[in-house]
Specification:
By secondary structure, this protein is of the alpha/beta class. It is built from eleven helices and nine strands. The strands form two sheets. It has a seven-stranded mixed sheet with strand order 3-2-1-4-5-9-8, with helices on both faces. Helix 3 runs parallel beside helix 6. The radius of gyration is 17 Å and the shape is globular.
């Protein structure tokens, strides 16, 4: 990574609202809709509707302040614990949780949920269901072996990480070390869900060119299997957006469990 050319998220942080507006909003010129919203929501719906991934506790450790991937999950877990390594991301998410003025508007997500679940009455309750399910938002430190040191979290039935490993890892060894910290949060029989972008080197967030670790599907699969996971499902969605804001080739969605 050329630190002179790219900002590094764990060191420099990001403008979390700018990230949401650029990559996840309902603006007419938001070209990433099919890749960053529709594809992962379809994958989550498929994964959870199969009935294997459920339980008492879900821990989400994902990049930025987005929560659209958790709407479906909230119907399968009693509690969702969200970990963030940025105070700004926590503040942005708390605005939405507490329905404060200026909170990011996620209402456009309902159209995707309606298409997937087909019940418009239940869709109206999805915002409150998710807000109720998120019982805690915590600051974490990716430099610590125990991410929430000194607090020790109960092991989770499922850990979701969307994008975080891509932004906090400088190279292959760094990715593997961070991965190992994340999966320490899991129960021995727990499920892991990863979302990442393949062959990506940067993302523009506002005026900042932010580093992403470049890897391919083969590398991601090898990390999982080397660390004792069985891959249940892997979906790769090739880039449809025409934009030079980010140079990914595809989105990848993986569900896995330990043998």
């Amino acid at each position: 990574m050329d630190s002179s050319a790219h900002k590094f998220y764990p060191v420099h942080g990001i403008d979390s609202r700018e990230h949401l507006e650029t990559y996840l909003s309902n603006k007419p010129d938001m070209v990433f809709r099919d890749d960053s919203i529709k594809f992962p929501m379809e994958c989550f719906h498929r994964a959870f509707s199969e009935g294997h991934i459920k339980g008492d506790l879900l821990i989400d450790i994902s990049f930025g302040s987005f929560i659209h991937h958790l709407y479906t999950a909230s119907g399968y877990f009693d509690q969702i614990l969200v970990l963030k390594c940025s105070e700004q991301c926590i503040m942005e998410l708390n605005k939405w949780i507490n329905t404060h003025t200026g909170a990011f508007d996620w209402s456009h997500i309902m159209s995707y949920i309606k298409c997937l679940e087909g019940n418009s009455d239940q869709c109206q309750d999805k915002h409150m269901t998710l807000k109720t399910a998120i019982t805690k938002i915590m600051k974490c430190d990716i430099d610590n072996e125990n991410l929430t040191d000194p607090e020790v979290l109960p092991p989770a039935d499922c850990v979701i990480s969307a994008g975080m490993l891509d932004f906090i890892s400088k190279d292959q060894d760094d990715y593997i070390n961070n991965f190992r910290k994340f999966v320490k949060l899991l129960k021995p029989e727990g499920y892991l869900i990863l979302i990442g972008t393949l062959n990506t080197t940067y993302a523009m967030i506002g005026q900042d060119k932010v580093h992403l670790f470049r890897y391919d599907e083969k590398f991601a699969r090898k990390v999982l299997t080397d660390e004792g996971f069985v891959i249940d499902h892997c979906a790769v969605h090739k880039k449809t957006a025409e934009s030079d804001l980010i140079d990914y080739e595809a989105f990848m969605f993986i569900t896995a469990h330990r043998e």
